[in-house]
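Run log, item B.
One chain of 419 residues. Sequence copied directly from the ordering sheet:
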Amino acid sequence: MWYLFFLTVIFLQPPNIYSLNETCWPRANNLTCVLNKLFFGYNKYLRPNQTGDPIRVQVYLMITSLGPIAELDMSYTMNLFFRQVWTDERLTLPNKISNVAVSTKLLSAIWKPDTYFINSRSGFLHTTPTLNHLLRILENGRLLYSSRLTIKASCSNFLRRFPLDIQTCPFILSSYAYGTEDVIYDWKLDENNGVELVPLKLSQFDLFHYKTSKRIIQFNDRNHSVLQLDLSMRRNAGYYILQGYIPASLLVILSWISFWINSDATADRVYIGVTCVLSLTTLILDIRSYIPAVPYFTAIDYFFIMCYLFLFASVIQLTAVHCHLDYRRTIRRKKVMKNLSKTSDRQNTSSKISLSVQNIRQLNPTQRSTFAGVVQRLQNLQQKAPLHEFDRLARIGFPLLFTLCNCIYWYIFVFYTSQ
């Protein structure tokens, strides 16, 4: 009978509802008990301090890799650890407990900032081998939420100085739904201003500076707190120097070989000039495939235009030499024909030139010697012509002018515009 009485008393006792009292707090090592009491009556749909001041969220970034940086679609990719710290007084731990790492399954049970990246195009949370994020409950109700992300963000490149340019790519974040009356973002105050950069090695760029800023912008008639990170990168021009500048310069120098070729070899000189022009065109098309179709000239375009002008100038020079030589031959030929008409006893000059060998033998010694002199003069015209004065000037003028243009070009795009 007494046995039944004790069982009835035990089963009729009310269930133990966890509350913030001494039944659980002294046993600080019992984290399950502590967490159960913290989440009793917790409403994840309301932000902390709902009727009070806005929640301040501190952001800390650790960038582990940067790139590729694509000019064609004007974007860049980076891997980072994205960390947020905010205070939720409803999750305040007892004094004997601090910095508790809890399961990330609790993320679905608590309120957290709805942070998004304004200029991102795509991104994902790493899941190898498991979801790469963590949640820690710190002292005084502070929460730390960290996740490992890969973000592809837009970066409006200004390519007027390409490939000698400096690009600044922004990374902008804000709250999607909460305005400044609910959530305010701040960079973590430390020696890195909230951004830590692991030593990065980029293939085409050197990251030499970054800048953090904070501002308020208006979205849909509502003010939002915004954090921005500006990454300043200088392009490594080594690839374009080896694949663009040096080959284009060598093609220009190659076109100068025609200045040392016999002036009468017009076909050979034209072949060299045309070949250099076509080779430069192929080189330009290859380089332009790496940059978007922008409506303005880039720095490398100006260099290619300069090389084009020198190639066309060399072709025009050999054309001028050919026309001048042809003009001088015509004048010389007219003088020879005129002298021939005076020494042939009023005979037709054209008939004497077309005489066969048999008719030449029938001439008297005086006429034969006269005709032989005329033929010798005509043969001398077909011999190697002396160095033309145009070629002599071109051998000196073209290299000097090309060197001067290069000095002006590199001064403008390396020193002057970079300031």
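Observations after the first pass:
- The chain has two domains: 42-236, 239-342+387-416.
- The two ends are 99 Å apart (CA to CA).
Flagged for discussion on Thursday.
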